[in-house]
Design a protein that fits this description.
By secondary structure, this protein is mainly alpha-helical. The protein contains eight helices and three strands.
Length: about 160
């Protein structure tokens, strides 16, 4: 056995897959999204389309820019979602009269009817999650805080500690 170790041997080993926070979050996200699938398929919706309807049900009308920010997605992802939902008659787009670059999005009557069916979905997902409402709230707070810190880090801004 040699007294000299390679640089690779001196480094800490890569953590096991189950020890990666990113994998835990990824697996949980996929599992939850998968739980939505059988609930959304009868409505002809994908999970991202569901999120658009949730936002429009909450805000009634939003600009595409606001929708991008609220969903934390990019235009290249949101624009096809909007187009598909519009083609299916669930929402309509309208350019702002004084600035045609601004596009407003709102639910149609058919979209509002579909939106009413969405209220039964969160309780089913809540049951699938298997956590108490307090545990869900705590988890959401932690994941939101994690998201803010990672976004600040990615933007090059040091994250502040929050209590």
């Amino acid at each position: 056995m040699s007294d000299h170790t390679s640089a690779t041997e001196q480094r800490d080993p890569v953590p096991l897959l189950d020890d990666h926070l990113c994998f835990t979050l990824y697996a949980a996200s996929r599992a939850i999204t998968g739980a939505y699938r059988p609930l959304l398929e009868p409505l002809g919706l994908t999970y991202p389309q569901y999120l658009v309807l949730v936002v429009l049900g909450e805000h009634r009308t939003v600009t595409v820019k606001e929708l991008v920010a609220l969903l934390q997605l990019d235009y290249g992802t949101v624009t096809p979602l909007i187009k598909r939902l519009e083609a299916n008659g669930l929402l309509k787009r309208q350019r702002q009269a004084d600035d045609e670059r601004v596009v407003h999005v709102e639910l149609t009557a058919e979209g509002l009817a579909v939106h009413r069916h969405l209220s039964g979905i969160p309780p089913v997902i809540g049951e699938a999650v298997g956590l108490t409402p307090d545990e869900i709230g705590t988890l959401q707070d932690l994941v939101r805080r994690l998201t803010v810190h990672v976004n600040r880090h990615n933007a090059g801004t040091p994250a502040r500690r929050t209590s």
